[in-house]
Amino acid sequence: MNKANTGRFFEDFSLGQVLEHPIPRTITEADASLYLALTGNRFSLYCNKEFAFQLGYSKQPLDNMLVFHIAFGKTVNDISLNAVANLGYAEVEFLLPVFVGDTLSVVSEVIGLRENSNGKTGIVYVHSRAMNQEGYPVLSWKRWVMVHKKEKGMHNTYAVEPQLKNSVGFGALSIPEELNIQSYDDRYSGEAYRLDDYDNREWIDHKNGLTIDNSEHTMATKLYQNDAKVHFNNHQMENTPHQQRLVYGGHIISLCRNLTQNGLANAQWIAAINGGSHLNPSYAGDTIYAVSQVLKKQELGSGIGALRLRTLGFKNADWEELKPLYEKAVESKSKLSSDFVLDLDYTVLIPS
Amino acid sequence: MNKANTGRFFEDFSLGQVLEHPIPRTITEADASLYLALTGNRFSLYCNKEFAFQLGYSKQPLDNMLVFHIAFGKTVNDISLNAVANLGYAEVEFLLPVFVGDTLSVVSEVIGLRENSNGKTGIVYVHSRAMNQEGYPVLSWKRWVMVHKKEKGMHNTYAVEPQLKNSVGFGALSIPEELNIQSYDDRYSGEAYRLDDYDNREWIDHKNGLTIDNSEHTMATKLYQNDAKVHFNNHQMENTPHQQRLVYGGHIISLCRNLTQNGLANAQWIAAINGGSHLNPSYAGDTIYAVSQVLKKQELGSGIGALRLRTLGFKNADWEELKPLYEKAVESKSKLSSDFVLDLDYTVLIPS
Amino acid sequence: MNKANTGRFFEDFSLGQVLEHPIPRTITEADASLYLALTGNRFSLYCNKEFAFQLGYSKQPLDNMLVFHIAFGKTVNDISLNAVANLGYAEVEFLLPVFVGDTLSVVSEVIGLRENSNGKTGIVYVHSRAMNQEGYPVLSWKRWVMVHKKEKGMHNTYAVEPQLKNSVGFGALSIPEELNIQSYDDRYSGEAYRLDDYDNREWIDHKNGLTIDNSEHTMATKLYQNDAKVHFNNHQMENTPHQQRLVYGGHIISLCRNLTQNGLANAQWIAAINGGSHLNPSYAGDTIYAVSQVLKKQELGSGIGALRLRTLGFKNADWEELKPLYEKAVESKSKLSSDFVLDLDYTVLIPS
């Protein structure tokens, strides 16, 4: 018996099964710097200790997307090492700020199982939660992945699918307790736009593009200790239709989110991800662009507002070129073209 | 109206205008490690806490070039996003040491404006200053950039050009107050050469070469939160005469400066940059080499000396190959060949 | 006289000569994060502060391979800048844990010299030791390198070769004093295998592969301040039979060691390296795999066991493909094929 883990197959999952993921991780100031260098983060709260203190934090908070990637990375070895595809995310809720020096542990529960009619694969739904070193939950999310079966055939007598919400309601968002938004100073972020300056259905073209290189996306993914081989093993990927390594979908989310800083500089806190799809794979050499649309907005009280946003990521073309294609696809209710790589629905907090 | 910033054009600048650059930045131990990994820094003071303490510092000081890049990066979005070219630097003065944990804010003042006769571009002169979290100025510099106009034509009735000094005088150099140079131990740097060992007009061939890769120079530039698109957006750069991303000029300065450690290991403090030109662009794949010439030297007292140096950076050829070309160009007063990428005039402190 | 160091030649070494290597280095939390991002480290002890505290450490210990690379890097400039080849390592002993914030100084003594009969090269044997800021030795190792002579011909009248042990005996291994192994919790590492679960001669196929990119291996090597030009200077390497930069052999050791985490997750402490050979060079683009064989095991008492392992690194082929070639080579006592890059004999501590 070889001692190396080769990942779970569909038959290895059972409803209600609880997986305690190993290798809890202390997140350091260095992880924050690397995240900045690898993804181009310019949100001012995460690189300015003085600003954080002024807003009431006692320690430097970490960007929620960095927290997400590190927590998500913990689950890969147990859940998605043999995944055919990551099908979706729902109810991603950032519950508490995570600070430099915190150590995250992650646990997942299997909340749904459904065999595919081809008899070769099945869908596993999991609810994952990350806790800090004091045991407080800081992040909760659900995702579903298609995984291979060990043996062909149909095994279960019924399918269990969890009821997933389309979005995390504005009322259910967690607002950092220590946050003293009255001290928020726009000069630190560089933009004056606050809640009221954004209109429902408004589009923002974030303009800049970021080109991906192999070292960069693989370093980011190794930093998250995510060991899905599609990102790292060129020797194996050469013989797939991709013919090369795939960029971790979360890296694309981070690139797009960080591009949105240009036009959404005060939307510093991601409070929830309502849903997300990776529309097409990305590879080294691709240049990623992003646009966002305001889906919904609301004053939450105490000077804090919530914006529900849809961010579209696309590659090797700018928005002026793609907008007509996008509009045509919407009109004809057809799929977006292969230029599009990400469709993310999420909610941010912003001073009102 | 799209909310994303697309940068200032010539018409957006006015004489005396003050720009408070957003996103102040806390510089961490991690930034110092990344700087080392990205640029090959081997100056002993910046990687050895014990040596720093022995020299009188109460905290780990940061390499002045790292400080410069982070401060410079802050100004790009407001000043040079639409720059045709960075024309030059002058009076770059490092006023106070910057330590791990310090937070820098940067302010620029427009000190000169001159339209070009083509009616399409103009030159903007700015004086930028970086302050630490206590409000003390740590770095001051002037630069001038050529920027596009929104509309063609001549608009101003007069041109204002600032008087820029050719160099920061030896008497005006800032010496770190806490520096106890008597404790300087050559064994830590690995070279015994001090002020008196360098002769006026002496050349030093630093010998080693460093090859640039895309991930590396773009990570460095993202670390500095410099978002000039020429460094990041291959999709746009493909359709320019460069056909690819340009390496941030400051990265070349850092590579050359760090190469000088071999032969100038005790010149640990850059006190001032008197002037600098990027002679030619650099691209991923280029191998950078450097030579330095001593322009002037002086004992400043208390065991500290100043060396004014000229460092030439060049690529894909060693000095033995290029020296005859250099000498011919000097003799005929013609331009240096396209192998040369940097001509930097700066002043360092060195134990005497 | 050019002031830049161009390295020692065979004639520059003498028996008993002591070289105090310059540029002592403080190792930071950031170096640990970078090591993780650059080499894919997933050993739980080095990324989880809470786990370290639980095991009795008062500070975050650093991965011994990171310690080795940083210490080794210090010696390159004085010993192997003109090396034709790094011939081998022996008696690599990790004596004390190194913690975040420690500063390492390295000293080497020449313990052997032997001229090669071609009259062009010679072999230099050195014993290097790294000390922390309190002067305690933390790492000791011997290596021998072939270096060029300045002048052709035979100069010495006799050869001195040190007696090198084939291995560091189990009884001579240093066990971290603060280590409270009773608190070891397998849930943190993710594997339940302890000393007794491994059999003598057992093979472990670690399965995963990691592709190397240029930025990554050069960043790692710069992080270690190892300035051997073969890793950095593509312009010079293009005209060698390699036609490109060589990956630092130590980077390959780290990749292989980190791959072993899958199957050896509780073997968190490298206590000694008994010997190692770089069988073939690696280049950017290569995908590295590893298998390990248990050579010997022993209970050391107090709940700690020692495993002597042989890890083979190979590239661009998986073990199923290479195993027959390996077995054939063993049977016929012939050299391993050019797919193999590393043969490392080392001893790890593991809970028993």
UniProtKB/TrEMBL annotation, chains A, B, C:
InterPro entries: HotDog_dom_sf, MC_hydratase, MCH/BMMD, Thiol_ester_hydratase_Rv0216. Pfam families: MC_hydratase. One of its GO terms (molecular function) is lyase activity. SUPFAM superfamilies: Thioesterase/thiol ester dehydrase-isomerase (SSF54637). It comes from the Bacteria. This is MaoC domain protein dehydratase. It comes from Kangiella sediminilitoris.
